[in-house]
TrEMBL record:
This is Small RNA 2'-O-methyltransferase. InterPro entries: 3'-RNA_MeTfrase_Hen1_bac (IPR024026), Hen1 (IPR026610), Hen1_N (IPR024740), Hen1_N_sf (IPR038546), Methyltransf_12 (IPR013217), SAM-dependent_MTases_sf (IPR029063). Belongs to the methyltransferase superfamily. HEN1 family. SUPFAM superfamilies: S-adenosyl-L-methionine-dependent methyltransferases. It catalyses: small RNA 3'-end nucleotide + S-adenosyl-L-methionine = small RNA 3'-end 2'-O-methylnucleotide + S-adenosyl-L-homocysteine + H(+). Its EC number is 2.1.1.386. One of its GO terms (biological process) is RNA methylation. The keyword Cell wall biogenesis/degradation does not apply. The lineage of its organism: Bacteria, Bacillati, Actinomycetota, Actinomycetes, Pseudonocardiales.
Length: 452
């Protein structure tokens, strides 16, 4: 089986930098199911194509312990499936993560791409790829031209054309190839949830068929799919019913993504280098922070052991030089911790609303008093915006674990008390679309300690 990636971005041979595979060399990689080969059928300044060919060992595949295949004769060596997705993850892993030291600006730039899969399950291809910005061309094939009554093959020649970041294109292939095939060659365990949410972070939450994608990717294991969908709803920051039924414009960033981007922008603007993510959860913000070399020391603090384990798995996937800049601690926002004292900035992203109101003075004493960073960034929902979500009944909170949700005036009052007590100044930044009547869905308070 094979997949080809073509670009006409000029110079097109920059594709070699993005994929970390030189166009003048054919390369070979051993993978768990056989051997992967990377080569360039064409490489000019005008047009460049990289091809990944996976040579599957069908006998070894069936004999491998835990494999879900039961027959030596099968279609796995030919049809695009989870085997090809795993090979993409191993061979193009650096490109999949969006890293390109030689051309960092290009890695963040959408470029014209054509993806060719000559043998691919096609029934859902247009439905799954079109909302992501692709133009989808499916050419059906007969099972055998000599026997017309056998009908068409379930596999087709699939071509996707669009203008996307290469990392996004690879992430979509990585997730959707097993979804199209609706089968995996390995047992699905709970770790697959983290993998799905990590690789699909930039697009899955807003895909109109995210429930179908999640269910198929997780091999129809209901408890895993339910957990993944719940976490996707939290990522998208909409009430569950809106998140399930709304069909936002393709490639629109979720509110959670906008929040993380705003936090990183603010940290960069205030010149922070040593940063604490207080209440880091599963490590989504850590992933954004570690991508910025300006943040030289990053600490994640989380009270929930399960969330901390998920964050640790996230950190394990970082490149070696990135991992060296990150440490994780179990800790609470209510108790002073000398390990987070005197940092440039502490981030409390969607944390305060999970704290009982009587405990907020302890949080303030811990963060603004004992730790005393130069800056503190606090994001929290703006309850005034809740009326814009029709499915959220009046007076209800966005999430069952929220103890409260503040209006803009209520956050302002709390922030003013912090400033008066602990010697900080504050400014307020909206996150998400700003409604002229009710403001933005998320509010950010940026505290800066006054000079002595």
């Amino acid at each position: 089986m094979l997949v080809s990636i073509t670009t006409t971005h000029q110079p097109a041979t920059d594709l070699g930098y993005l994929l970390h595979k030189h166009p003048d060399r054919a390369q070979r990689f051993e993978v768990s199911t056989g051997t992967a080969h990377v080569f360039y059928p064409e490489a000019s300044a005008q047009r460049c194509t990289a091809t990944l060919l996976l040579d599957v060992d069908p006998i070894g595949l069936v004999r491998k312990a835990g494999n879900t295949l039961g027959q030596y004769v099968n279609d796995r060596p030919y049809a695009a499936s989870s085997l090809l997705a795993v090979a993409i993850g191993k061979v193009f892993g650096t490109a999949l993560r969006g890293r390109c030291d030689a051309r960092p600006e290009l890695a963040e730039t959408p470029i014209p791409l054509e993806i060719h899969l000559p043998c691919c399950p096609s029934a859902l291809a247009e439905r799954l790829f079109t909302p992501l910005g692709w133009t989808v061309a499916v050419t059906s094939q007969q099972l055998d031209p000599s026997f017309a009554d056998w009908g068409e093959s379930p596999y087709a020649d699939l071509r996707l054309t669009g203008t996307l970041r290469l990392s996004d294109a690879l992430a979509q292939l990585y997730v959707l190839l097993p979804v199209l095939d609706d089968g995996k060659h390995y047992w699905v365990v709970a770790d697959e949830i983290d993998k799905l949410l990590r690789v699909g972070a930039n697009w899955l939450a807003t895909h109109p068929d995210r429930e179908l994608i999640t269910t198929r990717y997780l091999a129809h294991q209901g408890r895993y799919a339910a957990e993944a969908l719940e976490r996707l709803t939290e990522l998208d920051d909409r009430p569950a019913e809106d998140a399930e039924h709304a069909e936002p414009p393709a490639r629109e960033r979720s509110l959670a993504q906008q929040r993380r981007a705003t936090i990183v922008d603010e940290l960069r603007a205030i010149g922070a280098h040593r940063v604490v993510d207080m209440g880091c959860g599963e490590g989504k913000l850590l992933h954004e922070l570690v991508a910025e070399p300006t943040f030289t020391e990053i600490v994640g603090v989380e009270v929930a052991a399960g969330q901390l384990r998920s964050a640790a798995r996230q950190v394990e996937r970082f490149a070696d030089r990135q991992r060296e800049r990150v440490s994780l601690h179990q800790g609470s926002v209510s108790y002073a911790d000398p390990r987070i004292a005197d940092f440039d900035a502490i981030v409390l992203s969607e944390v305060v609303e999970h704290i009982d109101l009587p405990r907020l003075p302890a949080l303030a004493a811990t963060v603004f008093g004992a730790a005393a960073p130069r800056h503190v960034l606090v994001t929290t929902p703006n309850s005034e915006y809740n009326v814009r979500w029709e499915s959220l009944p009046a007076g209800h909170l966005r999430h069952p674990d929220h103890r409260f949700e503040w209006t803009r005036a209520e956050l302002g009052s709390w922030a003013d008390d912090i400033c008066a007590t602990h010697g900080y100044d504050v400014r307020h930044v909206p996150i998400g679309p700003v409604d002229p009547e009710v403001g933005s869905p998320t509010q950010l308070a940026v505290f800066t300690r006054r000079a002595a």
